[in-house]
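Dataset card, provenance and construction

Sequences and ligand SMILES were collected as paired inputs. For each pair, a complete structure of the chain with the small molecule in place was predicted and serialized as structure tokens. The example below shows a pair involving pyridoxal-5'-phosphate. Curators did not alter the output after generation; any descriptive sentences attached to a record were derived from the structure itself.
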Amino acid sequence: MSLFDVYPLFDVTPVKGEDVFIYDENGTKYLDLYGGHAVISIGHSHPTYVKNISEQVGKLGFYSNSIQNPLQRELSTKLESISGCDGYQLFLCNSGAEANENALKLASFHTQKKKVIAFKNSFHGRTSAAVAATDNLKIIAPINAQQEVDFFELGDLTGVENSLKGGDVCAIIVECIQGVGGLDEVETGFYKGLERLARTYNALLIADEVQSGFGRTGDFFAFQKHEIRPHIISIAKGMGNGFPIGGILIHPTIEASFGMLGTTFGGNHLACMASLAVLDVLEQEHLMENAKAVSTYFIEQTKSLPKFKNLKGRGLMLGLEFDFPVSELRKKLIHKHRIFTGSAKNPNLLRILPPLTVQTAHIDLLFEALKEEL
Ligand SMILES: Cc1ncc(COP(=O)(O)O)c(C=O)c1O
């Protein structure tokens, strides 16, 4: 059977990972400044992570959501204390798209409305309502297009308010820093405005923290810089350091009822153990502080670059914008300098999404390579 050919692939076959490095089948070492698309938070094969998951699979890997699973409660307690999201409730699922799908569905149940407000250049995943709220017509099939979504420029509060006045909006979904779209973020007044408008017009504000959450920006969540309290916060990627797990944090005012949401695999024992290991390591190794410090160093180093147009993002969700498409540069970085970086919808943007354990010496390797190629 052949594989359904949907991914353009680099000709590299990683077989081993260790902290910020991956190794191919010939033992060639690559610096991972892409983190497998912002997924690797505590570093590849972190010893605590490997130990905890291995021990758990030896005991019990999975049972359905029909029994008591104390690991889910342990995860929710730990997540509440590290994130500072006091009083929120946790629903667990398996991916970022699924997290947003459940967030949108919950907003619709809660408000009994059905229209969604989203933003230009957004990416929320590929399932039904999540993909409809994604600003990319190429990945929206006719079956998804029936969902009503109004798109506005990030920052356009007037547009958002006019749409809300129409009365049928259940949710506003926003990435405070857009990931795939190209690391755009606007001023705090906009996010505070969204919070205020959502409350005024009885819609729920969903912060999509699938990419920016779990410490990537140096804060636990990107929205925290703007001092808002979204109704729903969606999480995935860094949450499991590669183990498939996602979830939504749900504001205390939103009530659950049996059967409202559900999943077979979500919140299974192994997934909880993976995420608990991530939270332990984040805390013990002060990785959010490290993200901020290494980010500051990165920003300082850009001064020595011969040509680049713009620095975007914050924490370890960074991008260098050039005045040319970066696809050839990325290939040279991988094949000649053995460094993985990321791309974006904006073809001129080179994205840097390393494990949060990255050190300044690793950033030096990138800048040496860039200086040679630019
Ligand atoms: C902000 C954001 N939301 C949602 C998703 C979808 O996550 P997943 O691919 O796990 O479904 C992504 C994936 O890149 C993302 O960046």
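Derived descriptions for this record:
The chain has a mean pLDDT of 97.
The longest helix spans residues 96-111.
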